[in-house]
Design goal:
single chain, 12 helices, 29% helix
């Protein structure tokens, strides 16, 4: 079968071939709780770009070449002897973070905090291929009416946004505002999730007029052009000088963390999702304002089920652009150049 694999890192994204289409052996069932998923769609994420640039080498500890792709959906092709939750032919989306299922975090339902957490497509072979081996506990049956190629980005882009938005809304008061920074593949889902979960005013921040237009279309109450300290002043003006009760940062690069924290109100939350930049804050500022800095990675199995329920009801819709399997490098290049509206999906 074919797989799109990384053979060398490309720090400057010179391309044009970031991945090679290789012939690799088909995976087989090895353990009783294994399942094989025939891939119907695999989302392309900015994390894939960071991996190609070599930014994840210390965390990955993998040998090249290997197969990227951590947003995967398809149909069950085979099951191990101990699998009871799915049968051959079922349409499923794959939770990318592989927990052990037995540590204290997993037992509490916080599988994204597993002590042994490893991600398909990051720490080991992922779904830019035809057939993927995973665990039965990591596949979520798709609701009727949702096709795998449309559902694949819910596994990470959608789930990550849902996880952060759900955490943010737990502590929002009716007169609080919530800011979401970055209305791309994750953010356009995040705006819709916030609209579904809270009556609080939603302020979307982005550097792109097109992205801000999409945010308004999807339910944002206010939009702010980001990229400078003027965005901080505008958010504070929109919130009566208080700042936002929660700021969800889906960018995390350059000066964005500093701006995001400055947008946060006394007692508010700064939820970090994007990465690459640095936040430098005096301890006194955190202590004196009781602001919280909260990290977010992926989401849980239950949260993925909840998100798919919202999608089935039409409350959340995910914008995708399909690419044939042999155009995986074009998809990566388009994402890096900011040409993808919503999420790019590779369709074998």
């Amino acid at each position: 079968m074919k797989a799109a694999r990384i053979h060398k890192f490309d720090p400057d994204l010179t391309g044009p071939r970031f991945l090679e289409l290789d012939e690799v052996p088909e995976p087989t069932i090895e353990e009783p709780d294994d399942v094989l998923v025939r891939i119907g769609g695999a989302g392309v994420c900015r994390t894939d770009i960071h991996i190609i640039q070599g930014a994840w080498t210390e965390a990955q500890q993998v040998d090249l070449p290997y197969t990227l792709g951590h947003e995967n959906a398809g149909w069950i092709a085979a099951t191990g002897a101990g699998v009871r939750n799915v049968v051959e032919g079922d349409a499923v989306v794959v939770l990318p973070g592989m927990g052990d299922g037995t540590c204290p975090a997993c037992r509490r339902g916080l599988d994204n905090q597993c002590e042994q957490l490893a991600w398909q497509g990051i720490q080991f072979d992922g779904g830019f291929t035809e057939l993927l081996r995973t665990k039965a506990r990591n596949v979520v049956p798709l609701p009727e009416g949702i096709e795998p190629k449309a559902a694949a980005p819910y596994a990470d882009a959608g789930l990550t946004s849902y996880h952060a938005a759900k955490r943010a809304t737990r502590d929002l008061e009716p007169d609080d505002a919530v800011v979401i920074i970055g209305v791309g593949g994750l953010g356009h889902v995040g705006v819709q999730v916030l609209r579904a979960l809270t009556p609080s005013p939603i302020i979307a921040v982005d550097t792109s007029d097109q992205a801000l237009g999409l945010a308004r279309e999807l339910g944002a109450d206010h939009t702010v052009t980001g990229g400078s300290l003027a965005a901080v002043d505008e958010v504070r003006e929109l919130t009566g000088g208080r700042g936002a009760g929660a700021v969800i940062d889906l960018v995390g690069e350059g000066d964005v963390p500093q701006h995001a924290f400055a947008m946060t109100a006394t007692g508010g939350q700064y939820l970090v999702v994007g990465y690459g930049g640095t936040l430098s804050v005096p301890a006194l500022d955190i202590m004196g304002s009781e602001r919280r800095i909260i990290g977010n990675v992926g989401g849980t199995y239950q949260e993925l089920r909840e998100l798919l329920t919202l999608a089935q009801r039409g409350v959340v819709r995910l914008l995708t652009t399909d690419y044939p399997f042999d155009q995986v490098n074009e998809a990566i290049g388009d994402l890096a150049a900011g040409k993808v509206r919503g999420r790019a999906v590779i369709v074998p």
